[in-house]
Amino acid sequence: MKALIIIAHGSKKDLSNNEFKSMVEKIKDKNFQYDFIETSFLELATPSIEDATKELIKKGVKEFYYYPFFLNSGRHVLSDIPEIINTLKENYPTLNFNLLTHFGKSKFIEEIILKDIAF
């Protein structure tokens, strides 16, 4: 089984975290590629990346894909998230962990913006 864990920064504001969770729920409804799609947060909200992963391991997931929902290549994208994924790889050497390119590098960003500003 394989899972996608979408990672947001996390906020002290429930509204922000709930908007992210709602978006991921809509993605789940359109998903045909992964057995599971879950939310996780780098900080300030739950579940953490590690906790989301551990819950999926309990469900039998062997292959993980992590999608950072971050716009830019800052410290979290370049250092913090890869460190967490590397620790998971060390702790669970028989499982497969894959870090995807962050949202801001998507080739579709420009199209989204152009559609949003069109009138």
Overview of the structural elements:
This protein is α/β, with parallel strands linked by helices and 119 residues long. It has a single domain (2-117), classed as Rossmann fold. Helices cover 44% and strands 19% of the residues. The protein has helices spanning 14-29, 49-58, 75-91, 109-117; strands at residues 2-8, 36-41, 63-68, 96-99. The chain has a four-stranded parallel β-sheet, sandwiched between helices. Strand 1, helix 1 (14-29) and strand 2 form a beta-alpha-beta unit.
Contiguous low-pLDDT stretches (5 residues minimum) are none
The CATH class label is Alpha Beta
Distance between the ends = 43 Å
CATH domain topology: Rossmann fold
Please list the strands of the largest sheet in the order they lie side by side: 2-1-3-4
Number of domains: 1
- How many helix segments? 4
Query: At CATH's second level, what is the architecture?
Result: 3-Layer(aba) Sandwich
Write the layout of secondary structure elements.
Blueprint: E1 2-8, H1 14-29, E2 36-41, H2 49-58, E3 63-68, H3 75-91, E4 96-99, H4 109-117
Parallel strand pairs: 1-2, 1-3, 3-4
Annotation keywords:
single chain; 119 residues; alpha/beta; Rossmann fold; four-stranded parallel sheet; 4 helices; 4 strands; 44% helix; 19% strand; globular
Summarize the structure.
This protein is α/β, with parallel strands linked by helices. The protein has helices spanning 14-29, 49-58, 75-91, 109-117, and strands spanning 2-8, 36-41, 63-68, 96-99. The model has no long low-confidence stretch (mean pLDDT 97).
